[in-house]
Amino acid sequence: MISPLTLLTAIVLYMVLLFAIARWVERKTSSGRSPAHHPLIYSLSLAVYCTAWTYYGSVGKAATSGSLFLAIYLGPTIVIVLWWHILRKLIRLKNTFKITSIADFISARYNRSQPLAALAAIIAIVGITPYISLQLKAILSTFALITPQPMSGFSAGGAAGSLIGSYAGPIIIGMLILFTIVLGVRRLDPTERHEGMVTALAAECLVKLLALMAAGVFVTYFMNDGFSGLFRRFFDGSHHEVTRLWSLGTPPYLTWSSYLVLSASAILFLPRQFHVAVVENSSEKHILTAMWMFPLYMLLINIFVFPIAMAGLLEGHPVEQADNFVLLLPLEYGEHWLSLVVFLGGFSAAAGMIMVSSITIATMTTNHLLLPMLGWSHRLDFLKRHLLKCRWVVVTGFILSGYWFKEAVTETYMLANIGLISFAAVFQFAPAILGGLYWRRGNAKGSMLGMSAGFLAWCYTQLLPSFARNGWLSRDVLDSGPWGIEFLKPESLFGLTGLDPISHTVVVTTLLNVGLYVFGSLYFEQTEEEQRIAEEFVGAMDITVPLRGARRREASIDLNSRLVEIKLLLGQYFHEREVEALIDKSLHSLQIAGKTWVTVPQFVELYGAIERYLSGSIGTAAAHNALQEGIHFTPAEAQELAEIYAEVLANLKVTPTELKVRIDYHQEREKLLLRHARELEEKVNELEREIQERTRVQNALQHSEKRFRGLVESMNEGLEIEDEKGFITYVNQKLCRMLGYEEAEIIGSPVARFLDVSQREIFERHCKMDISGICSYEIVWKGREDKQIPTIVSSVPFFDQEGNHVGGFSVITDISHIKSLERERANMVSMFAHDMRSSLTGIHGLAHRLQNRSVIMDEEKRSEYLKVIDKEASKLEYLMDDFLEFSRLEAGRLKLKLSTTSLDQELRDIFDIYQPRALQRNLVLELDMESELPVIEADANRLRRVFTNLLDNALKFSREQGTIKIEAMDSAQEILVSISDEGIGIDPVDLPYIFDIFHRTRSGEKKDGYGIGLATARAIVEGHGGRIRVESELGVGTTFRVYIPKRAGASSDTSFHAPEDEQKK
Amino acid sequence: MLREDGPVKRFKRLLRQPATHVLLFCLSLVFLSWPFIGVCYLVEADTMFIYLMAIWMVIILFLFWISRSSADATEDNRRERTEG
Questions:
Q1: Cβ–Cβ contacts within 10 Å for residue A666, how many?
Q2: A96-118 confidence digits (pLDDT tens)
Q3: How many contacts, defined by CB atoms under 8 Å, are there between A and B?
């Protein structure tokens, strides 16, 4: 024995494991790799057919009726041979019509009939409730068997044993309800597919198979000597009835055949079987694997039924306990672990069935019973938004009703008998479904008549006797018939005696159901809509003709107003976000997103898409009704739609020959389309190549543009690009600096903004000119704070292909410095002339005096006059020399007279001359020279002029008590002479122009001179093949470095390396 | 032009025919119902068990072959459609 706590713990752990499997699969599914989409999972999940009835009841049936139980599994095996045709068709229709349950299927086939769906739902609920009770009975009775104290239900709380044991029934029921909701009704899914639940179900099916086989192996090979030994022992005893087909003395073949027929029907038409086989199917190909794997599963799970039944009877157990042999035998032999495994196997068998059946019943009840009822009374409309919670309530109610039925009725039946009652109930679906699949004339009225009659007959022949046996009705009803009319006896209705109850039900219900279905279908005419649907169902495996294939129509339906209707309708069932997503998805899939007007076929397709989606959630019939109420076609639209259908139907009505021709045509067309597709593919490839080439060119262009931009940005000239209206579209940084504006301030402004009125005229004049060609002109730009910037502008116009002027660009060179030099030159010439005139005036005046007053003038005065004349003449000579030097420089005719020159001697002479002058100015003059400089070829006088010029400047700009240094150094190829002072230094602004002619520094106060000296010095030094460099810091001093090559004309690139800033110069 | 097929291929093609499925369905029904079951009833009980199991296994074997041949056909069709 196992304690109740241990057993409950094992159940909880097992359920948690199954839930973990389901969650793992759901996560995988959401990432697009569902393990549930595997034929093995599909095949195993179909084994939900093998419930506790199989697990425990088969042994019970074998012990009482021999091989009869095998018919329950052979019937499905026989019909599975045709699955590739029947089941495939069902699955294809499920996918087309988004069918969610067997009731939904029947409703969809028969003109979306809501009453028919409701009837099917009621049959399922009433028919399956005993089956649920059977499963609960199996779980609870085996729980009682395996635990030490007796089991108790809701009302047996005070029974002996532990508290857990006493309340095990309600606890297990609660767990089953919770497990079912968590695994299968956690959310509303339009497809009603539950990959996680199906995988958990497959795992359960595997567990029950292995557990039963383990029990079978134990009983056959450990308790006995194998199959042959067991059979021998058994037949040596007195149990010959076992393994015979029947033991009741009734006609054997009829019972056997009834079982075959019922089970063959149940394998597809039990709501849970329909759900796992059709609704949960993810691929038609999985049917092929299931076709052999599922019969093999049934064979394996039954292979040890006979040995267990025989062993139980041989052990001396009464045949009434045969349902428990599977668990009882290992338990008696003290195999507790095996008993626990066997119990869990049985629990799996029962729980799997309860879970799937409850889910399907919940779907059917809400979709086909609750929703139509909500349509009658709008006060309960709010429930439409709580369908999920309604399903939870239905699941709970359904399982509890099964428990009630178990408590109330099933104690009087063995497991197998209860199962057969349910089989007989769902058998009533068979005529409507099979007729709907293969008979075009089958209609809703016939189906309603047949199913109603069959169901009532089932209630009368099966349910009523069970109530009578349970004591709820008088047994006289069974024995003598109601009101004593024997003709109406439930178990021999219409005088059909000699049949077992199940065969009797099968015969009676088949006659009534099939007969009335056929009669009703023939008697009542089908509507056009029914004909169309029947055509779609019967011809589901044929080629379908899409509505859009009809003649092209005009877009006449205002889509936006219809979308409002659709949103209002869907809003009753879904949240706004889901509604938007659904509509968006549908519009995109039909390629009508963004359109304002649509054609009737397009709107009908949208209507169909919405209906299919809604069908997935609330069932076909309810969805159809909801759409009919919520979305209306105008008479004109209805007329057009009728014409389209007529056109399609007319197109369908062709002779076989014509059909063959059309098929050939379509095949040919398909080939053409394929060829066309290949050509398109090639074109796509070509386009891809073109795109790659364009990308490459684009990259090259980008690279080129980058380089061009770098070039433009680094150039020393300003550049602007303007459009045809004269607005600037591009400007480089140089021009920004030139004008003193940021780039953003210039872009988009007219060029005229940066010109004065007078300059604008010049610019506009040249603009008109430059349309016909490139031109250069001077113009003064107006920068920030009205700064005037003289420039030379070179404009290049742009023209389009028609020759229209579309803008242009201008390169702007700042000539401020040139203009400044021009001004300086003009000033210098003026000063030069003025100085010459002063000297000449003085000479002229003194000469005139000497000439007129030479007689009266004393010697001293004359001598003074002559000295002044001499001085002024010298000054004139000096001026003339400078002027000549300047002229030569300008003309480039400065010629050197090279001779052997001792540079150290020259420098010492200069030092001697300038030493007194320096002292006079309170300055220190130092000479730092290597002992002996080499003799070089040079123009001594010119070099002397260079050094004196530099020293003059040093004296001029030095501050008192400053030091002036003359340094000389010798290297392999050059002699460096540097003259440095500690004077006021040179403004960095002036530094680049210091050697330019006429340039005079602006930092010093002393501005005498003409700006010729340093220009001349550079010309002389460079004439010797040397170079002159300057380094200065404002307020610190200035150093001039003169590099003279030892050999005249030698390159000066080597030897002394000037500092970096000097190199730039 | 018709191709020369081997016996295996011909057998597979035979198994794919809907008519074959109907035939197998009928044969299964016959072998698992009266009169064959009635005959078995007259012989020893273990013979009955062996007979039912044997018929069951044979049906499963045929179902396996049907399944494989249909799967091959489906795959061939798919390939043909892909290759045009």
A1: 12
A2: 888 888 999 999 899 888 889 99
A3: 100
